[in-house]
Write a structure and sequence with these properties.
two-stranded parallel ribbon; 443 residues; globular
Length: 443
């Protein structure tokens, strides 16, 4: 039925070892070869197909997806005409606004802080299986807490430098191992709370790295696990951070209602958040509001202002895990929050100014952040009809790519290429798109 996940399409894509963005590009190429006009599919569109929001793409798209995934029929990919089914189904189940029942119940358990129900029954599927029932509980002290914290920072540094393409599996494995400590015998209740907080930190980093690697299902499970562990620890800041990760993921997947729910929940008891953490939460809220569309533009601008006000109040008393977040990150996040509105006809000057400021401020050791901001700025410039300057910016983004392996950066480059298609008669744009093709080609 329409509204139910299309597991056949998702399974076919995963069997082909493709991200949603990569499948969209392959299918667009097939459409162009068949019709002479490139398709306009992107990762968000493939995500909507997989979630069952659309069950009957047009004829050219269905043919292209069949060819890209080596399937012989529409049914093999879970496609069917909703009009033909309407006559045979008396009471079709209405589509959900925010995911299936299990997801909503899980989300409600997050709201009430039910760690056992939400996270530990199956935090990543493999956690419970990895634990041996014959092994006596391990004694856990502050040394183990410090080690988990150190591992979290190590993975975070790797992520900022190179993206997560080569590290996502490793951090999930480490999270699985570290999570087993939660069943240990604790020296004191304080140590127990600190360990839950440290594991939540690692889970949040694992979620972000899986997100960056294009492994969205793993990312969501890691973020949810982080919310539960942080709630058990009474760590409101980390709880908000993990919820904001879920909000960002929902934005990336084109789910504005879910993005708003997660972002607004992250701001519950904002009085318990430090200024920089609160600023991050407001940027995530602003981005969700921007995705919601023009009717929420005023709210989006209000949220960006709240983020700037909170950041201006920072005085150094912040969690160690937020130390990386400086003015460059704030400018980038503000620019990205306004990007959806800007490329769809809204005022683009503020988004442009924030992204330019971010590029100028990012230090070299945070190359992924700078490259992502540059790709976003190039996309915005291309969409606002300055294709030659956009091409220059796009080449700068590609120059900065280097060893970075980040699906989020790659997706930003795909969006730039799509925006450039209507300027394909301009030599500089053709050259840029050809270079993007080479950069995105699997090794």
């Amino acid at each position: 039925m329409s509204g139910e996940p299309n597991d056949l399409l998702r399974a076919a894509r995963e069997a082909a070892n493709l991200t949603q963005g990569q499948l969209a590009e392959l299918a667009n190429t097939q459409v162009e070869q068949a019709t002479g006009t490139a398709g306009a599919m992107d990762a968000d569109y493939i995500g909507k197909l997989e979630r069952g929001i659309h069950r009957w793409p047009n004829q050219q798209y269905r043919a292209a997806l069949r060819q890209a995934l080596h399937r012989s029929s529409d049914g093999d990919l879970g496609f069917f005409s909703t009009r033909s089914r309407a006559a045979t189904v008396e009471s079709p189940r209405p589509p959900h606004d925010g995911g299936d029942d299990v997801e909503r119940k899980t989300f409600l358990r997050v709201l009430t802080g039910s760690v056992a129900g939400m996270a530990f029954a199956d935090p990543l599927g493999a956690f419970a299986a990895a634990a041996s029932p014959d092994t006596p509980p391990r004694r856990v002290g502050q040394a183990e807490v410090d080690q988990v914290r150190h591992l979290a920072r190590m993975f975070a540094t790797q992520d900022h430098l190179f993206g997560s393409g080569l590290s996502a599996d490793a951090v999930v494995t480490q999270l699985s191992t570290s999570a087993q400590l939660l069943h240990g015998r604790f020296a004191t209740e304080t140590v127990r709370q600190h360990l839950f907080s440290a594991v939540a930190d690692l889970a949040d980093i694992a979620g972000g790295m899986c997100f960056d690697a294009g492994a969205h299902a793993k990312a969501e499970r890691c973020f949810r696990f982080g919310v539960g562990a942080a709630t058990e620890a009474g760590d409101w800041a980390m709880r908000g951070k993990a919820l904001s990760g879920l909000a960002n993921l929902a934005v990336h997947q084109g789910r504005p209602d879910d993005a708003l729910s997660f972002a607004e929940t992250a701001l519950v008891r904002a009085d318990r958040l430090t200024p920089v953490v609160k600023a991050v939460m407001h940027t995530r809220h602003a981005r969700a509001l921007g995705l919601a569309g023009g009717h929420r533009e005023a709210d989006c601008l209000t949220a960006t202002g709240q983020a700037q006000d909170a950041f201006a109040r920072s005085g150094g008393d912040e969690p160690d895990w937020i130390a990386y977040y400086g003015p460059a990150h704030l400018e980038r996040d503000l620019g990205r929050a306004l990007l959806h509105l800007a490329v769809n006809g809204g005022d683009h000057t503020a988004a442009q100014a924030h992204l330019v400021a971010a590029i100028d401020r990012f230090p070299q050791q945070q190359s992924r952040g700078k490259t992502l901001a540059m790709a976003n700025l190039a996309h915005l410039t291309m969409a606002r009809d300055d294709p030659n300057h956009a091409a220059t910016l796009g080449h700068s983004a590609l120059d900065g790519l280097g060893p970075i392996r980040s699906d989020r950066v790659f997706e930003a480059l795909r969006q730039l290429r799509i925006a450039g298609r209507r300027h394909r008669t301009i030599p500089a744009v053709r050259e840029l798109n050809a270079r993007i093709d080479r950069a995105l080609k699997p090794a």
